[in-house]
Amino acid sequence: MIHTTAVIDPSAEIAVGVTIGPFCVVGAGVKLGTGTELASHVSIAGPTTIGENNFFFPHSSIGQRSQDLKYDGEPTYLEIGSNNSFREFCTVNRGTSPGSKTIIGSHNNFLAYSHVAHDCIVGNHVIFSNNGTLAGHVIVEDHAVIGGLSGVHQFCRIGMHAIIGGCTKIVQDVPPFMIADGNPAEVRGINQVGLERRGFDMEKIRPLREAYRLLYRANLNVKQACELIRKDLPGSEYLDHLLAFIESSKRGIVR
After folding, report:
1. Does the bond joining 75 to the residue before it have cis omega, within 30 degrees of 0?
2. Which pLDDT belongs to residue 235?
3. Catalytic residue (choose from 119, 132, 151, 161)
């Protein structure tokens, strides 16, 4: 299942059932899980560990050294889960500081030219549209959507079930369940369509809509809004996560 034109470092660990197509390069310290497929012209550098059933389309470049100018060749890492799709010309970099990691979960879809920089953490079931890009140290929670041609500033966080519109500039944290769009970004509402598609009923959505109203439409500051959400709305795991996300923000949230 390895094409004769592929170049495989002797130290690479290739599981049973891996397919490596023409002109691929698999470097030292790379581990490929069973069922993973490299279509053609894919470059994977290590140390990188990749789980099962991932598909890398032509010309994706994975596990290359950090682009951070502070990086000086120290051993850093990339870990990728299972069942991810990396379309053409995707790039994912390893960490920067010695021993640091870039981490990507499972069931994610990275469209063409998307980029994950050093030390990022991407959860599960995340979609990156074409040219969606993360700077270093960004955290993206589960089920988020990164719009095409959008850019996320370093150290920002994107909350679970949030969506970023196309061509959006993100310089602060995007709270869970929200839609952020524009340059500079503004929160436009809750991601109701996305939530409905993922099985949220109105009993779960209604408190999130009310939390949005208090945060963005009630002429309150963030602290006041969070206090009212906690006091007046029925508790739920989703509201708890929203509040914890906002109150732990170091960069502030997109308003």
Report:
1. no
2. 86
3. 119
pLDDT above 90 covers a percentage of the chain that reads: 99
The catalytic residue among 59, 115, 118, 137 is: 118
Burial class, 192, CB count within 10 angstroms (exposed 0-12 / middle 13-18 / buried 19+): middle
Residue-wise pLDDT for 205-232, tens only, equals: 999 999 999 999 999 999 999 999 999 9
Verify whether residue 118 is a known catalytic residue.
Answer: yes
Give the Cα separation of 151 and 240 in Å (integer): 28
The residue with tokens 């994107």 is 158
Catalytic site residue 240? no
- First CA to last CA across the chain, in angstroms? 51
- Whether this prediction's pTM lies above 0.90 is answered by yes
Q: Active site includes 136?
A: yes
Q: What is the pLDDT of residue 71?
A: 94
